[in-house]
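Dear colleague,

Thank you for sharing your sequence with our group. We've completed the structure prediction you requested, and as agreed, I am returning the results in plain text so they can be pasted directly into your records. Please verify that the sequence below matches your submission; if there's any discrepancy, let me know and we will rerun it promptly.
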Amino acid sequence: MEDIYLSEADKEEWEAERYRLACDRIAQIPEETVCTGAVQAYFAEMAAFVLLADRAWRIVESGELRRMTLPELQDFNRELYADILPDHYGRSYGDPDYAEACLGGSFGRLLSWLYAELRGMIPAAFEQDRFNMVIRMELLLEVYQTFVCAAQEDGQSAEGVSERGMPQPETIRQILYWYASDYCEPAAFDRTAGLLCPERDFALKIVMESDLSDLRYLYYYGEYVTDSEMETARHLCGLSEEKIKLMADTYTEGYRIGFEAGSKDISIKKTVNIRYALGFERMIRQAVLNFDRIGLRPTIYRAGSNIFQGRSVDKNGFFGANPNRQFDYDHREDLALILDKPFVERRLECMKSAYERFRSEAAVFGGPAVVEIFGEAPFAPQTKENACRLSEKQQKLSVEYAVRAGALQNEYIPGEERSFTIIAFPVPDIGPQYGDIFDDIVRINTLDYRLYQRIQQRLIDTLDLGSTVLVKGKDPNRTDMTVRLHELRNPAKETNFENCVADVNIPVGEVFTSPLLRGTEGVLHVTRVFLNGLEYRNLWLRFEDGMVVDYGCANFPDEEENRKYIRDNVLFHHDTLPIGEFAVGTNTAAYVAARRYGIEDKLPILIAEKTGPHFAVGDTCYSHAEDVRVCNPDGKEIIARDNEVSLLRDTDVSKAYFQCHTDITIPYDELGEISVLTGTGERIFIIRDGQFVLEGCGELNRAFQVLRTDTDMG
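Please find the predicted structure tokens below.
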């Protein structure tokens, strides 16, 4: 760790000296022959990668990066990421199965872990973050030297192939463990500063200072760049100033209105966290100007790429193309090598220290404003036998950490004071009609919210007459759900459902509630759905008293593998989760657009949830802000902000929240009915056979007529 008594200048000089010494030593590794052939080949390749990252450092430091031609930038970018691209991945140490085959059962998983961590040097090089370069160089040297010492002590020659002359695997695991533990604190400070401090302006400078018509700027981030990011940037450069402003205004106004609708004071906030994909800089630049006019400065951080930030197929921050989603999937549980109770406590201590350091910045942080993308090729992961997997005990620790970390964040950034917004746009991978689809999505994102507000109020008025809602699928959908609603003690002033228009969740198009758990039961089924970037086929969940009691899908031949897939990626290692939300989606225009272009499998949850009824498992929509009074435009207060689980926050907050919320949508064409049962026994139908039949909602069926016309003409 760094000496806290050194001056900043001395620290920089010390880090520079460590950097130079580490580089010099690593450069010698490929010429050495102390270790066995397979192990030496591994370390030679790791050394070559580190020297490549060092070359990236020097290219950025010298200013050469900005002088390189577009073809030169493209070649260098591909060189940085070549080893994990799908064509090469089967021969990469990043593939845990390949590492195991090459390095043996004792070391393959450990050294694949190290490989993945070293790749965190790429963003460090481009951000000129010498500290995060140095600690990874020194980690490699420590592991390598352990192998060298073991070989030397045994007197083994370079030709030896036995297990003799090798260190104990536990010795290597301990090195990785203490690396993660020792540097947990600076990592927590970096991540927290990236979230809260506008001064961390690496990406902001690229957005605001680059010539966005010169697409070389895409390579200044250090992210992987493909034709998709290039074409996205070209497309936005070709849009009129009016359309760019429309896109940005919808995004920033949604954020502002989110505060207004939630009765939260945006005037006390000073920062907003912007998250986006490369290629959208022209819109982001306009959004930065918009936010500035309402008194908010942007923070922009990079999506996670190391053990401290976590790796995920679903990116969170600013990000380029994913060179290989299988790589991220294979390493998503790398914490399994080091996760124990002391490490959980260490992470939480570091997180608290970071928030204490940035307490004043946290107090004026408004929340995230997210630009999602969709249209990439669907990803169905392979299960790698040798990928790290959390044990049952570690899964419980992971859940404990998530719950306590969420509570800690809420202590410094209270949920009742923050908001967010999310908007989504397609990328060129969606197909040859990209331009038309993009225009349609802009149209859908800017639909007349007053029309939807009026229709949705009619739905709410009807739903509020009931005590129970029935949701049934039709062949082949097996959904059969009973949803129990809260009792309205004063129907003239209270409601169960929020009238959701274009604010935090863009586009318009849903009414939602947090149902009572007791009495909510049945089976939820969808034939095909994509959740957080992962495909599920014939996904089903069974509920009793609002809690998941059983589940399955048809992704893998082995039923236990299917259950693990759901437990890991839908339940997030919890034994069960409650239903946190029931909603009726009303955006038939989005549904029809998806069908017209054949992109149903590529819609993000943000839009897909509006294309039919949906249930969310996990926290309620009002998580950490249940005590904030929320009203619909008609003045009625939404009283269904809690369920029996979230109410536990008053007695044991550790049991009240799960830090997850996953929407699962039943598309209209798989929907048999939605009906409400009133206290008098009357059954009022809202949807039948995928059509809105409630009086006053017929306008929503017009989009279906367009779809039928298209089908007839086809």
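Summary note from our side: Residues 447-713 form one domain.

Kind regards,
the structure core
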